[in-house]
Write a structure and sequence with these properties.
By secondary structure, the protein is mainly alpha-helical. Helices cover about 70% and strands about 5% of the residues. A 3-stranded antiparallel beta sheet has the order 1-2-3, with helices on one face. Helix 4 packs antiparallel against helix 12 and helix 6 packs across helix 12. The radius of gyration is 20 Å and the shape is globular. The two termini are about 10 Å apart.
Length: about 375
């Protein structure tokens, strides 16, 4: 028996189901108001799920391969896509984050965060002599450059959370105190530069600090809390949420947790807020467990599994903390729950890798 494997897969399916319930509720409203055909939603959903499953299987397959040999190519190809996005990308809502190939649009920033971990694992395994502090500055510098490229889209939220996640990985993997202090000072400096350079960043932080009393973002923050409160313990009921009526824009993306909590509450089955948090914790916990079990077998795979787990957890946690009002609005989606094909593909690949790592972790017993 490999209970952690089954628990992880069940948790992933659970989150995907929550996402389908959320999308179904929103599309039923859009089909009436905007005339969007439910059939197109079904087709789109089937395609995205198929691609997600393929990405998951690919992650499991590549775990058994020596992908560190191609880590440089994977990283720089991802960086190249970021540069192409800045030059030729599609602009929507004031941000240039998407590129289109053969009619399909995707966000390179969703993939670069895992490509970066793949590269970091290679540097650690081959250059650090099992001591992360030996390669700390190199990894922090490369991560900072990538974060800046993402920030220029502008996508400050993804850039900030990515850099923060990398710093957390490096700290937990054995960075020295001076390196830790320096990295957080760098993060603070970049945050201050962003605050003074990008008006939308300044607006979001001011709203969080209570300096802004009106505006779209302020309304979103308020309505997100209204959704959580009105959902209560067991929710208003499937399809009965009111925020999708235009009160909470991006209810199926940036504020997915708030909206689904409105319909299913904290404990409503199966998509209550508590169950979503529990599934995220189970996936992360099992990923960290697998990383620990692999530490003596393969340093590279152990690092990558840990990095994937941390990235997934922090991005999920930031989304939820924003939705409940503990962080400024960011625009980050909730993996597997929010609408988004690029996010689904990237996270499915990472989960495939982690799932295979958990399977291999049992061989250590």
């Amino acid at each position: 028996m490999r209970p952690r494997v089954y628990i992880t897969i069940l948790a992933l399916i659970w989150l995907v189901l929550c996402g389908l319930l959320l999308q179904w509720s929103v599309i039923m409203y859009k089909s009436v108001v905007y005339g969007i055909s439910p059939a197109s939603f079904i087709i789109n959903t089937v395609i995205r799920l198929f691609v997600g499953i393929v990405a998951f299987i690919l992650g499991m397959i590549l775990f058994k391969r020596r992908i560190e040999r191609y880590a440089d190519v994977i990283l720089w190809a991802s960086v190249g896509l970021l540069v192409i996005t800045l030059v030729f990308g599609k602009t929507f809502g004031g941000a240039t984050r998407w590129i289109s190939i053969l009619g399909f649009s995707f966000q390179p920033s969703e993939f670069v965060k895992y490509a970066l971990i793949i590269y970091m694992g290679k540097v650690f395994a081959y250059e650090s002599d099992k001591r992360i502090y030996r390669v700390f500055w190199k990894l922090l510098f490369i991560s900072s450059v990538i974060a800046v490229l993402v920030a220029l889209q502008p996508n400050i939220s993804t850039a900030s959370v990515l850099l923060f996640s990398v710093i957390v990985v490096l700290i937990l993997w054995g960075a020295k105190p001076l390196q830790i202090i320096t990295s957080f000072l760098l993060f603070l400096i970049l945050a201050m530069v962003s605050y003074n350079t990008f008006p939308h960043v300044r607006d979001r932080i001011n709203i969080f600090l209570g300096k802004e009393e009106s505006g779209i973002r302020k309304a979103q923050v308020v309505q997100a809390k209204v959704a959580l409160v009105s959902g209560g313990v067991f929710g208003r009921g499937p399809g009965k949420g009111l925020q999708k009526l235009g009160y909470l824009p991006s209810s199926d993306k940036d504020f997915a947790y708030s909206y689904i909590s409105e319909e299913y509450g904290l404990l409503g089955f199966p998509a209550g807020g508590f169950w979503i948090i529990l599934m995220i914790i189970l996936i992360t916990w099992n990923g960290v467990w697998a990383s620990d079990k692999l530490a003596l077998q393969d340093e590279y795979k152990s690092f990558v599994c840990f990095g994937f787990s941390v990235i997934y957890f922090i991005f999920s946690a930031v989304h939820i903390l924003v939705n409940i009002g503990f962080l400024p609005p960011t625009g980050l989606t909730l993996p597997f729950v929010s609408y988004g094909g690029s996010s689904l593909m990237a996270n499915a690949f990472a989960m495939g890798y982690i799932t295979r790592a958990i399977i291999e972790g049992y061989k250590g017993f």
